[in-house]
Structure formats: C-alpha cells, structure tokens
Write a structure and sequence with these properties.
By secondary structure, the chain is of the alpha/beta class. It is about 45% helix and about 15% strand. It contains nine helices and eight strands. Strand 6, helix 6 and strand 7 (about 170-175) form a beta-alpha-beta unit. The chain is globular.
Length: about 250
C-alpha cells in the first residue's frame, strides 16, 4: 500500500488521460495521493481533485517561481478555502528556488515563504517545502517558525542538513532521484535517516524513477523507490510501505 505524499495531477500533461491514470494507480496499490498546489490555478485544481476523488487530498500553496502573487489578501483567501474544506491537509508547495535566474528575487521569495509559513502556523497545518540551491536560507526561515513542521520535499541537501531538519520535527521526502545512478548524496541521506522520518513521493509528472527516467511520472512508480530503500536499509517491502504510510497519515492528519 502506497501513499504518494507529493503529486501534481492537475498538471496539463494529464489532461488527455487523467481519469484513466488515477484509476490505474489505485489498481496498482496506491491508496492515497496528496496533490500539491504550485500556482493559483493549481491550488484550485487540487481542491477540485480532492473533492472529486476519495483517495486524493489537497495542499494549497504558491511555489517560489510564482511567489510574486503572495500577499495578505491571498493568504485570507487560502484561509477561506481551508475553513470550507476538510480535505486540505497542508500548506505547499512553498519555499525557495535559487536555481532559475528568471525566478523572483531572493528577497521576494523569502518574504512569500515567510508569509506562507505564518499561514501554516495560524492554521496549525504542516508545510511542504521546496528547496533548490537554497539550503542555508531555507533552514534559516524554518528555524524562525519552530512551531511549524512538515516535509522537505524532493530532498536534495546533505546528510547534515537532513539531520537538522529532522531535529526540528520535519520529514524527508524521497522520490525518483533515489534510483538514479549518480544520486550518491540522497542515498547517504536515506541510509542515515530513520525510517520514521521518511515520506514517499513522486512529484509527478516530474522526476520519474529509473527505468522511466525522462518520461511522465505517476504514483505507482514509487515501487521503484521502495525497492531502492529496501536495498539501502535492508528491510522488507512491507516495512517500507507500512512505515512510510503511517508517517504520511501522522503528518497530514489523515
């Protein structure tokens, strides 16, 4: 039994066959999906998907690449969404992305990140953090909100950074990158971090694992991630699935 803790089934790449894919993944052992908003349309679509499908839940947040729209009015709108819908389980995905030059400035990103962390604190919801080439600033802002926890999604930091996150009560999101041949650091992270702090995710349609690397990702491909965790940890498939399922349910109050 698999719970995909981070997916984007609202993405246009699923427009032609979304219903078929969602049916197929359930038949292949996926019992839950957290669909994460990245822009305003994604937030609304995530809520709609959660309302349409029993096994889908929603996270609402603005990705750093679109964070110029984050302001008090939008946060008030998000509060309204949350108060009207009990399938909204997290604020995300939010955070910092210093990789792309065309993204908003670092200062704009940090301000938007703090506003959404504050919203999570106010609503007592976990956060889903996007951190790309911004480990230092991400950790600094996480430390400002000691009463907020969540998951650092698609984790790309060092073992030391992972341990800092875990100390603050965060989980580590592990996806398809773990199966890549050159992914030495994330393999070390999985080796060092206890299973009770690991979540399974796809980030679909992105980041498909080997042997589907470069193709459209989907939730049942997590099985390849499970196999790699089994190998690294020396534990059974059932243990990986059961522990990560309980972790996901606990964090997102499902």
């Amino acid at each position: 039994m698999i719970f995909d803790s981070h997916a984007h089934y609202d993405d246009e790449s699923f427009n032609e066959d979304r219903e078929v894919i969602l049916k197929n993944i359930q038949e292949n052992g996926v019992i839950g999906v957290l669909n994460c908003g990245a822009d305003l349309d994604g937030v609304k679509d995530s809520i709609n998907l959660a309302n349409k499908y029993d096994f889908i839940y929603a996270a609402i947040g603005i990705h750093p690449s679109d964070c110029e729209i984050v302001n008090k009015e939008l946060m008030d709108e998000f509060k309204k969404y949350y108060n009207e819908n009990n399938k909204i389980k997290a604020i995300g995905e939010i955070g910092l992305d210093y990789y792309w030059d065309e993204n908003p400035s670092k200062e704009i990103q940090k301000e938007a990140f703090r506003m959404q962390m504050n919203l999570a604190r106010e609503l007592k919801l976990p956060v889903i953090i996007h951190d790309r080439d911004a480990h230092k600033d991400t950790l600094e802002i996480m430390k400002e909100f000691k009463d907020v926890t969540g998951v650092v999604h698609c984790f790309s930091g060092s073992v030391e950074f992972a341990k800092e996150c875990v100390k603050m009560g965060y989980y580590i999101g592990i996806g398809g990158v773990l199966t890549f041949k050159n992914a030495k650091v994330i393999k070390e992270v999985v080796k060092e971090i206890e299973m009770d702090r690991i979540l399974l995710e796809t980030d679909c349609p992105y980041m498909a694992p080997t042997p589907y690397r470069g193709k459209r990702n989907q939730s049942d491909y997590i099985n390849f991630v499970v196999e790699k965790i089994m190998e690294i940890k020396g534990i059974s498939k059932e243990d990986v699935e059961n522990i990560t399922l309980q972790n996901t349910k606990k964090l997102f109050d499902i």
